[in-house]
Prior knowledge:
Elements: H1 17-25, H2 29-42, H3 46-57
Helix pairs in contact: 1-2, 2-3
Transmembrane segments: 34-58
Protein name: PspC domain-containing protein
Membrane topology: Single-pass membrane protein
Amino acid sequence: MHKKLYRSRKDSKLFGVCGGIAEYFDTDPTIIRLLAIILLFVSFGWGILIYLAAAFIMPQDDGFIDV
């Protein structure tokens, strides 16, 4: 099975980055979002830049299901 990292359309709150990461690692998106919030506070703002960079670099999910 070939997995790709995409921004999620179906599990998106802001840009879909956390939802896409959660789909890629097959985990709960809430856990990824909590880790992103912790990263935001621990990294003194670098987390925002990392998130925005990921939002612009990661392609958006095309919405098709691979079978």
